[in-house]
Amino acid sequence: MKSRKLFHAICTILASAAVLIVSTASLLWVHQPKVPNELLNK
C-alpha cells in the first residue's frame, strides 16, 4: 500500500513538472522574436 502511495506521488510530481515545462515552453514560443530559418531546419 505504501509503494502505491509513493507511485502516486511520483506520478503527480511528474505530471506537474510536465505541465510546467509545457507552459514555459509555449510562453517562450509565443513571446520570442522571429526565429531564424537555420534553427527551424535542424
UniProtKB/TrEMBL annotation:
The chain crosses the membrane at residues 7-30. InterPro entries: AgrD. Keywords: Membrane, Transmembrane, Transmembrane helix. This is Cyclic lactone autoinducer peptide.
